Amino acid sequence: MDLQNADCILIEGSNMAEAHPVGFQWVMEAKKRGATVIHVDPRFTRTSAVADLHVPIRAGSDIAFLGGLVNHVLSNDLDFREYVVAYTNAANIITEDFADTEDLEGLFSGWDPETKRYDPVSWHYEPPARMSDDDVANIEDVQDGEPVSHEAAQSDTHGSGGSPLPWKGRRDETLQHPRCVFQILKRHFARYTPHMVEETCGIPASEFAKVADALVANSGRERTTAFCYAVGWTHHSTGAQMIRTSAILQTLLGNIGRPGGGILALRGHASIQGSTDIPTLFNILPGYIPMPLAPLHQSLDAWVEDDEGKAGFWGNIRSYSVSLLKAYWGDAATAENDFCFDYLPRLTGDHSTYATVKSMIDGGCKGYFIVGENPAVGSANGKMQRLGMANLDWLVVRDLQMIESATFWKDGPEIETGELVTEEIGTEVFFLPAATHVEKSGSFTQTQRMLQWRDKAVEPPGDCRSELQFYVDLGNRIREKLADSTDEMDAPVLELAWDYPVDETGEPDGESVLREVNGTGPDGAVSSYLDLKPDGSTACGCWIYAGVYADEVNQARRRKPHWEQDQVAAEWGWVWPANRRILYNRASAAPDGTPWSERKKYVWWDPEQGRWVGKDVPDFVPDRAPDHTPAPDAHGPDAIGGQDPFVMQTDGKAWLFAPLGVADGPLPAHYEPAESPVANPLYPVQSNPGRRSLKTPSNPINPSRSEVFPYVFTTYRLTEHHTAGGMSRTLPYLTELQPEPFCEVSPRLARERGLVHGEWATIISARTAIEARVLVTDRLRSLRLGDRFVEQVGLPYHWGGNGLSTGDSANDLVNVTMDPNVFIQDKVGTCDVQPGRRPRGPALVEYVAQYRRRAGVPEEGDL
Amino acid sequence: MVDFLGWPLVRQLTGADRLGRGAAAQSPRSRDLEPRTRSADRVVDSVCPFCAVGCGQKVFVKDGRVVQIEGNPASPISRGRLCPKGSASKQLVTSPTRVTTVRYRRPHGTEWEDLDLDTAVDMIADRVIATRRQFWRWEDEQGRRTRHTTGFASLGGATLDNEENYLMKKLYTALGAIQIENQARI
């Protein structure tokens, strides 16, 4: 909603008008008010059609483009200097040991070629000139300690802010010190020139200049620019760094924490934000508390040690963690037994979904719950997914419809080719029908962190049940079956706080679960995470959600119409944390606490009341004066200075340079996708050096710059379908609107390969070949990179063999090569395209094998 | 007796609607139609289950069945609008291909079989217990405590409620299961 306040909106890595159509109305509102809308995307889409400017880009080259913009801002002194000096780490001085990609031919200091990992010790801030006792202790830690582990995706486990930093460091606020972040940034991005952008992205310098001018003209005291992105950024082996580049740019322009600013992630499932906050993810517990790691965390103290007491709200980690343990194990969790810390399983490495699928193929994982997801179509490299499922002992699928992940044993693509034989597959499959969103009550968290409660409208039919009911029931049965066990491994199950009363239909009360998530103390439901205690007197299922049940009221159920409220609409639903709509909104005021401008007034210091006031809940200590300087020995929230708006960061500053916490470098650098038609124009290092490869025969990788696989493919969504199609290919209305898969190609590519509009084409990678109808269109432009063209093929990925509308799955083409921070795959790859339908049956296997042989891919895969 | 005066052509020629686009062409059936939203017994507040924009929905219920789902005009996010998916969401509930009974495929089986829900959940509980134990690990190679199992995994959560995600992670964690993932990873 706040997008309507933007003066310029840059949408990149997202086709917002088609994938998030109703959210897009706020872009159009902004445009009506005079905002400039820019769309940077490989394809011309309905988003481009209403944008002021569409800039075609080669898929996967976003860091080069954004880096070019950073360079433009830095080399022309166009940054919002007052904001940058006060609110970012631009002034921090980095240790002498740091070396940049400029010095090391595309790598940063700390690279270990053996392990292919970075040790970030040389990326640290220079310690402060006058050191406190804490600083001295911290220095010893850094010098002696083990490097931060990224084995278990620890990059995103440091609260909703950054990772713990040992000290605030030395600063040079003139930004002239050669080793200060600002100067390092300038040197690092100097090679990202408009010419280099043209060579890398296929964007002419004239188009680049238009974007740069619009961003700069619409940033500063009076104006703000917003960025929108989606999986066009996250689905890359450099995805986290793409988003970091945009964060660096937006921070330099002073567009974070202000109305009409920010970087908006447009997420794709109703509660994908909620399932990240209250995670069904391997590396974190609720509220981004890290899962303990076996090598480091063998006690409660060791588990919270890194974060405890560090400046900012994350410094209260012990309160959040102990309260979570109390929510899990209730009365069994006491101070004497470390609040049952030992009942938490410890991680020993990468247990993410792709590593798990490989483990299934290798026989190391034999049971699988698939709950409202369809990996046979929705995950990269569908064959790998299906081979994994075919090697299980048992599989439970819970869904509304008979999805491909439930029927792979009967009619999957590998059954057709003979790679799998039904009678030989030993997997026992349970399909349990699920309740729809109107057949249960509960809350979703949408993409701007807003929880909205749904009331139940009708009872689910037949055997359909909510997941709430299924899991309560399953837990009850397991506990009954183990009730007599004295085995130590069963103690966490038996002592679990698992008393969920059910109604006459067997349905548990969702609001009582939400109340547990909110947290309780001696006085009932807590009203904020500030109420949580480290002594076991409070229990809280997810500290960042504390307040959603404040005053014993389900705040997520609030539905005050927008016409009865101001634009912030604070009484509709509830936004974490603390019903705060814009994060880090202290930055919407100048260092002295006054609004940057009347036009962009949002939260400011009221000297008479001695408080922060404004249109939103201030994201700051409410009575902390702008001129407050914390005592040197202050801890946690007390250590936040009056001019430190980034209250979740341990130094209160936005990190232009990440001294810690990022696996693949303190600054973004452009590397090519694992499969690319070109050599990296920027560095001698071709692909992200820290990328995670998954070596298994079903995941062969196309060699880069291969004449056999000369084209780039990229996958995308259509308005009328949803992700892997289980909720859309099964609905008559949507199927009628968008009945079959297709591939978009440029007229030039169509001529080159003899593709005919409306006829069939076969698209081939080292994994498999799929077929789709041909759509020849100018929407895909042939991109000129130096003296050559790069052609891109657009593939909607919604289809599979089941449902009312069927077709080959585009994700079967995609390889699994992952970003080292978050273990998310590249969605781009290389391919060939040929006219006509693909071979059927065993002939398809041989057809793809021939391609692999011609391209020089080892026959046994990338081993 | 045929009422010639009631014929649409006569009405068009004699009445005010000379182009035959309104009253002249209207049949008694179309005149008496009323929207399902008007005859509903109840209207329930909901939220669209597709993408993460979080558009408000009004669910219209008659005789215990969903008869229509429309956008909620009061929502500050969506102001009453729904996209094609949200507009089609009634069919998630009423789809004729929706599966409403448990289906079971025995190992090496070639067809689905019926299975009682209670039996199915009980069988699943047995399998969780057995597989958990089979792949249980107290320690890693260096003797550091792990207290986990890699025997079974879970995938999904982004289409479910917060409360459901919470209980899933809580139960799995107590069981020592660590390969818990959802759509946020893909």
Q: Which fold name corresponds to the CATH topology of the domain at 692-855 in chain A?
A: Barwin-like endoglucanases
Strand order of the largest sheet of chain A: 22-24-23-29-21-27
By secondary-structure content and strand pairing, the structural class of chain A works out as alpha/beta
Over all CA atoms, what is the radius of gyration of chain B?
28 Å
Residue runs with pLDDT of under 50 for 5 or more positions of chain A? none
Give the helix/strand class of chain B. Answer: alpha+beta
Instruction: Summarize the amount of helix of chain A as a percent range.
Output: 10-25%
Q: Give the integer mean of the pLDDT values of chain B.
A: 95
What is the CATH topology of the largest domain in chain B? N-terminal domain of TfIIb
User: Strand tally of chain A, please?
Assistant: 29
Percent range for β-strand residues of chain B: 15-25%
Q: What would CATH call the class of the largest domain in chain B? A: Mainly Beta
Work out the largest interface and the residue count of each chain.
A-B, 163 and 117 residues
Radius of gyration of chain A: 27 Å
Question: Would you write up a description of this structure?
Answer:
Chain A is an alpha/beta fold. Among the domains of chain A are: 2-80 and 192-265, Dimethylsulfoxide Reductase, domain 2, CATH 3.40.228; 353-438 and 458-493, 3-Layer(aba) Sandwich (Rossmann fold), CATH 3.40.50.740; 692-855, Barwin-like endoglucanases (Beta Barrel), CATH 2.40.40.20. Chain A contains 25 helices and 29 strands. In chain A, helix 4 runs antiparallel to helix 8 and helix 4 packs across helix 9 (205-217). Chain A is globular and about 75 Å long. The two termini of chain A are 49 Å apart. Chain B is an alpha+beta fold and 186 residues long. Chain B folds into three domains: 1-33, no CATH class; 36-94, N-terminal domain of TfIIb, CATH 2.20.25; 135-185, no CATH class. Helices cover 31% and strands 24% of the residues of chain B. The radius of gyration of chain B is 28 Å and the shape is elongated. Classes of the chains: A alpha/beta (863), B alpha+beta (186). Chain A: Residues 712-820 form the Molybdopterin dinucleotide-binding domain. Chain A: Belongs to the prokaryotic molybdopterin-containing oxidoreductase family. Chain A: Its cofactor is [4Fe-4S] cluster.
